Fold these 4 entries.
Entry 1:
Amino acid sequence: MEPIRRVTASTLDVLDALLASDGPTWGLLVIKATGRPAGTVYPILERLERQGWITSSWDDDAERSGPRRRLYEFTADGVRAARDLLAARPAEAPVRPSRPSRPSRPTNRPVTS
């Protein structure tokens, strides 16, 4: 199992959602639990699988209509590493006030495209 090189808030959210699930869960439930977009969650799931933190398999429920679901589940080492990583998560950082936006200054240059 490879360590996670870059731990982002999104990655921590995905790990937290997977830990909170009761067994294998599919990506859409992770998306709903984290509030993160699919374009963020699925690449994280793929990366975690490549690094050996989770495994995935296709749901084989033939009685369920709709597309097949890909189920994600922690490996034994992955669940321990995820718990350790989440336990070491720093407390919420204070929100830094954004810089006030300055009004744009008019210029006398012609607009070109």
Entry 2:
Amino acid sequence: MAQLFNKLKLGDLTKVSIRYKHGPDHWSVLKKKKTAKDKALEHFDDFYGSVYGDTWKNIRAALLKKESKYIAVVNNFSDSERIRTEIELLGAINLKSFYNVYKQNIDCSTSKTVQSQNVQNSMETYLSNAQLSEVQSIYPTDHQHLPETLESEENEEFLTTEKPPPVKLQSIEKDLNEIEIETNRIIDSSMKISMLQEYVPATKLKGLNDWVLESDYYKYYNKKTDFEVDIVPESILSFPEHLHAYAFESGNTTRFPPPKKGSTNVLDYYLFDGGSLLPLLALDIQQGDIVLDMCAAPGGKALTIYQTLLPHILVANDVTAARVKRITNVKDQYICTKDNTFFVTKNDARVIDDKDIYNKILVDVPCTVDRHVLHSDENNLFKASRFNERIKLPELQSEILKHALKLIRVGGTVVYATCSLSPVQNDGVVHVALKDAWNESDSIMIVKDMSEVLSPLKYIYKFADIGLKYGHIVVPSVRSNWGPIYFCKIVRIK
């Protein structure tokens, strides 16, 4: 018997019956294989599906595409005329010209039907003239093959004026009894998060069941009416004269080539997400402004502000040495002058001590970076190790915005921005910061409703209508795949 036992392998003695093994497709095996990207997508399906309703499917498909859409900002410190010509030959549209064409027709029209027809006719003329100019720069005007396709119907879909149906907000509470709640999306009230306590009733924070879903933030915020601020229609959206931003029309997936260096040894243009331009236009940079970009890395927005050639002083700040280095690298790659108007600083945005100096402040806060977390596990906020950091983001965001509201001079403008679809990180943070700033100081703020002045851009951008109270949000779509970008314009009047 001993000899027989010795011949048996240890694995033969410890084999587990097949009934206790899980196959590769079993839920327990798949759960162990979930990446941070998978967890992010599950969270978005749960949360954003309830907020954005039927439009979430299209937003989701756009976010999951590997390549998003970019806008090119011409570098005025390089050969700007040459750069603009080369970009226009690619078929890109100057957004300033595009906006002015639509705005002119909207201002002149009194009938919605006439308005729609005039806008379409003028835009077709604008695009046709741009294409004709491009062709004539290559072929003689009497060339027998001069294209007759300039009046084709390619732009008809791009020029549609139909609005998506209103989104009906849904609560996920009705499904709580039918689903298995994942603990990695549950907030323990012992964390003592002020943003959570701001919205969620105290009865939800008692006893052994001390948790709420992150999605519940929005449900409770949506019911808050204890603080009101005046919301005033914005009358103008101005494109600075020297800011030249180019984009391809909706449905056109052409990519800008990598920028090259010009005669001044700096790069020709800066590429970034097209939605990122809107908070800068909302900031309304004017000659002599003193501007602070509180969370400036990697530096694209600060560079674009500088390309307006308008600020008297521009300060681009961030909190870590690594992030400050990224801003400095962008500055060195695109600016050849050595004047004393563009400064890079390293500070925690919550403790910057420059009150009543700045009249324009951009607050582009750290957020969940919704597009990035679906494509990279590296440094992903949905890693288990970064759970507490992610949950505390709204609190950090509201503290930064509140501090900006205290720093801004009377009459000055603060624009708050995120690249998140979360109403908690967006309108929710604005609500808390405005309320706290009002309680802690004598300052009075108003919020600018930019719906009317943004309307000409709806033919390029897709704005979501989810009942936002303060700001505006550009959502990704398969045809216009840039964003998400949320922004809110706040003006201090006292």
Entry 3:
Amino acid sequence: LYSMAYHQATPTMGIMLGTKAFVAAVLGGIGSIPGAVVGGLVVGFVEVAVAALGLSVWQDAVVFLLLIVVLVVKPTGLLGHAVTEKV
């Protein structure tokens, strides 16, 4: 579907889509389906807000900056919970 919209196919055409999907999953919390949904919505809202401010060139950078901030503040993600390791 992606190549139908842009009328070309390249070997790297899905890298940014896959990376942003990974960012959404990490933001929400790995292993949490509702967290992945929330992470996807947050990524989408942040991208739209940055574009609405006229900074569409910075969309990707702001999304990755958001990922770094969330990982520093809450490494388990927004809806993730800490799991104790059994030895």
Entry 4:
Amino acid sequence: MSMRKLSSLAATVLASAVFVMSGSTLAQDAKSWPSNTISIVSGFPGGAATDLYARKLGAELNKEFGVPIISDNRPGAGGNIASSLVAQAKPDGYTFLLGTAGTHAINPALYSKLQFDVVKDFSRIALLGTLPNILLINPEKHPEIKTCQDLIAAARKAPGKLNYASTGNGASGHLAGAQFAAASKTSYVHIPYKGQGPAMTALLSGEVDFFFNQSSPSLGAIQSGKVRALAVTSAQRVTVLPDVPTAAEACNLPGFQSTTWYGLFGPADLPADIQNRMSKAVLKAIHTDSFEQWLVSQAIQPIKDGSPEAFRRTQLADMKTWAQIVKDSGAHVD
């Protein structure tokens, strides 16, 4: 046998041995899991709704596993920085991602190139809840606009004159605005900001006319009277805001919906035992009465079936839905 063939054979044997050893190490790690700190990564700033959820969930999982659970915020690129980090993480059960419909259903259609596959490079742990956007307006800037119908009437009188904020190009609030414009046959100027904080500041300062913001971070401003909530984009009213009608009701747009979700992901190739244990622990935590009450207080709708299988079906279906909405809106990020 030639030296070249011997070298090739040796390399193959070595690679196989490394693969077996790696698989064996993961199997051993799975038996002792968890023994170290678990990180729940999210792609948005500290204090964002995802951070609050990660901290709340982490506190419950700490009771279950007895190890520290930390919220690790890695904002940037619409959540893609955090997603890329988790996609490339060692699948040992110590790094998870609190992803969203934005990161794992909208971004594949929005970004021309991603460094990861939102389906193949992740394992699904649990679907964590759904949440609508809320149509907000500054009552000081627009005291005459008291209802969604008033907003539509104002837009029809002055096409393209009103503007609205979003947390970024292709974010759920941007796309909700595009859906709203199309459904109501009106036109608006979209102004993207870098996150919820700057967008809300723009609304409060009168820099923009309205804002489709996620429900959870909107509650304080609504309850203080700083903003007026004209409609929620879910099929039903939000329990914590019973007087705020749905867009279908308030805007006379039958069937109008624009909701998103949170979900917990792990890296691909996560050992089945770790995935199953983590999934059971998460589902147990989020279905307690106290946790569901907290979700409702944050305007997050609890999930009846958050299993990995149901989560996968939801993600795949939403990828198709949002791809069409992104296409219709013309949103695109390089």
